[in-house]
Amino acid sequence: MNVRRRQLLQAFSSIAAVTGSLRDTAAAPATTRMPVIFIGHGSPMNAVADNAFTRSLTAWGRRLPRPTAILSVSAHWLTPGQSLVDVQARPRTIHDFGGFPKALYEIQYPAAGAPDLARELQAIVKARKVQGSDDWGLDHGTWTVLRHLYPQADIPTFQLSIDYAAAGGFHHGIGRELAALRDQGVLIVGSGNIVHNLRATVRGAEPSARGLTDWAQGFDEAVKAALNERSFRTEQRLLNPAAMGASAAMAVPTPDHYWPFLYALGASDPREPLQHVYEGFHSGTLSMRCLQWG
Question: Where in the numbering of this chain does the Extradiol ring-cleavage dioxygenase class III enzyme subunit B domain appear (predicted)?
Fold first, then answer.
């Protein structure tokens, strides 16, 4: 083989090696910083309902990047005085409601748990010692909405409890610490309702674009305006529902469904784009507002 031909073969081999290396690099999955979302979950019947809200969840799930795991902070796991994280490898589906059709109690959402990530969460959160728990699972604040977002139940899912006795700043601060999990592909989901007063719901009211009372509509709009401005002042006001105006007394009579919103807000970055993914009301006074940051 003459010298010129040998040089050409060596050059082609080098190019092929570089091309192969680039191909391998492109094929390797990149670590994507996941968005953080808040879902107004409303009635457990949304698990089986076909309405504008549930259809928006289905479409939303198709747009979201696929997470490595889902961390849910649901309004239905309240642990006064402590914070717990579910460490089970196979969390059970919890039917934590009463008076609904039998078919709803038969639904299972058999997602695996995420014990390793749960233990990592325990290390990440410094504001409070988070205890591991195997006494919970996936409550209806989690599975009724994930059933639409990720119907295959093929993404590991775990829950963090809410210390119901703590103030808004505590929940927001925990959310800030949880943000580190987003860089590992974890989708952080707050699930509650920004306006939630079951005693004041309008039985039989059809889903509507606006609330049927001034206090429900007014509080929802005040939160939206504060989020859109996202200044230090407005963020601090959001930590205390009572600071959002006179309508707060009716809109948030108890903060259980409001606190998950603060976890999502804390885990978001003020520089990230905010999307109001869904706006509207069920039962006249339940705000179904859904949000996405990033």
Answer: 53-271
